[in-house]
Specification:
Structural class: mainly alpha
Number of strands: 0
Largest sheet: none
C-alpha cells in the first residue's frame, strides 16, 4: 500500500508538470498578448518596459522555469489584471466553485443511481422508456442552452428562483437565499453527468440482477428489497464509481460555462476572464489547482475500490 501511494504521488507530479508545460506553451502561442500591454494610450517604449518588468522578453523556457521555481516555493505569481497574488485570488474564489461542483456531483450521483436502479428493476416499462429518453436528452443538451432556458422559465416567467449571483443584493445573508441561488446552476452542472450515471447504473444493475448469487439469495428467502439494496446494488457500484470519477473532471471543466451563465462568483468565471485578458499567471495558477483536484480525485477513487470490493489489489 505504501509503495503504491508513493508511486502514484510520483506519477501525479510528472503529470502535473506535463500539464503545466502544455498549458504554458498553448497560452503563449495564442494570438495577441496580455491585455495590460495592449492599452492604446501606451507608447511602444512603455510596452517594452512593461514586458521587461513582467519577464515576458525572456525566452519561453526561462519564463517557464522561473514560474516552476516560484511554484516550488509556494508562490503562483502576481495577476496581470488585478495586480494581486494569484494564490489569494484563487483561494477567494475556490470555495464557491467547490460548493457548486460538490452540489452538482451529489445531485448527479444521488438522482442518477436512483433513476438507474428503478429503471433496471422495471425494465422495458413506461418508467424505463421515460427515463431513457430523459437521459439521452440530458447527455445531448448544451450546458449554456439549458442554463438560459431554465433562467427564462424559472426566473423570468414564474419568478421562482434567482437568475444570477450567489446571494441577493441588499438582503441579509441566509442559508435559504444561498440555496435558492444554488439550485439552477447546480441542476445545469449535474444534468449531463446525471444522465450518464443513470445509464451506467441501469446497465450495471441489469448485469448483476441476473447473477447466480442473487438467485441463491432469493432461494434462501431474502426479501426483494434485501436482494436489491444489500446484494445487487453493492456489486453494481464499482463501475458506477469509475463513471463518477470520470465525471469529476467534466464537472470541473464545465463549471466555467455554468458560472458564466449564472454569474456565479467562482473560479470558473475567473478563468474565463483571465483567458480573455491573457493573464498568464492566473491561467497557470487555475490550471494547476484544477489539475491537482482531478488527480487527487482519481487517486481517492482507486482507494475506494478497496472498500467496495476486498478482492481488488492495488499494484
Amino acid at each position: 500500500m505504501q509503495r503504491y501511494v508513493i508511486t502514484r504521488i510520483g506519477h501525479s507530479i510528472v503529470l502535473l508538470v506535463f500539464v503545466s508545460i502544455l498549458t504554458f506553451v498553448l497560452i503563449h502561442a495564442a494570438p495577441g498578448g496580455p491585455a495590460i500591454l495592449l492599452a492604446p494610450e501606451m507608447s511602444g517604449e512603455q510596452i517594452k518596459q512593461a514586458a521587461r518588468s513582467l519577464g515576458l522578453d525572456q525566452p519561453l523556457p526561462i519564463q517557464y522555469l522561473r514560474w516552476l521555481g516560484n511554484v516550488a516555493r509556494g508562490r503562483l505569481g502576481q495577476s496581470y489584471g488585478a495586480g494581486l497574488p494569484v494564490l489569494g485570488l484563487i483561494v477567494d474564489r475556490l470555495p464557491a466553485t467547490l460548493e457548486l461542483v460538490a452540489t452538482g456531483l451529489l445531485l448527479s450521483v444521488a438522482v442518477g443511481v436512483l433513476v438507474g436502479v428503478v429503471s433496471a428493476i422495471h425494465r422495458y416499462s413506461l418508467v424505463d422508456h421515460l427515463t431513457t429518453g430523459v437521459a439521452f436528452f440530458g447527455m445531448s443538451v448544451p450546458v449554456f442552452w439549458l442554463g438560459i432556458m431554465l433562467i427564462i422559465v424559472f426566473s423570468i416567467s414564474f419568478r421562482l428562483l434567482p437568475s444570477a449571483g450567489a446571494y441577493s443584493l441588499g438582503a441579509s445573508a441566509s442559508v435559504g437565499d444561498r440555496l435558492a441561488h444554488l439550485v439552477l446552476p447546480a441542476v445545469v452542472l449535474a444534468t449531463a453527468n446525471l444522465a450518464q450515471i443513470a445509464r451506467y447504473a441501469r446497465s450495471s444493475m441489469l448485469e448483476v440482477l441476473n447473477a447466480e448469487f442473487l438467485r441463491t439469495a432469493r432461494a434462501k428467502g431474502v426479501s426483494a428489497r434485501g436482494v436489491i439494496y444489500h446484494h445487487a446494488l453493492r456489486n453494481a457500484l464499482i463501475p458506477i464509481v469509475t463513471v463518477v470519477a470520470l465525471a469529476v473532471p467534466r464537472l470541473v471543466g464545465g463549471v466555467a460555462i455554468t458560472e458564466s451563465v449564472f454569474a456565479w462568483p467562482g473560479m470558473g468565471q475567473l478563468a474565463v476572464d483571465s483567458a480573455l485578458q491573457r493573464d498568464y499567471p492566473m491561467i497557470m495558477g487555475i490550471t494547476l489547482v484544477v489539475s491537482t483536484v482531478v488527480v487527487l480525485t482519481n487517486f481517492l477513487t482507486d482507494l475506494s475500490y478497496l472498500i467496495l470490493d476486498p478482492r481488488v489489489e492495488l499494484g
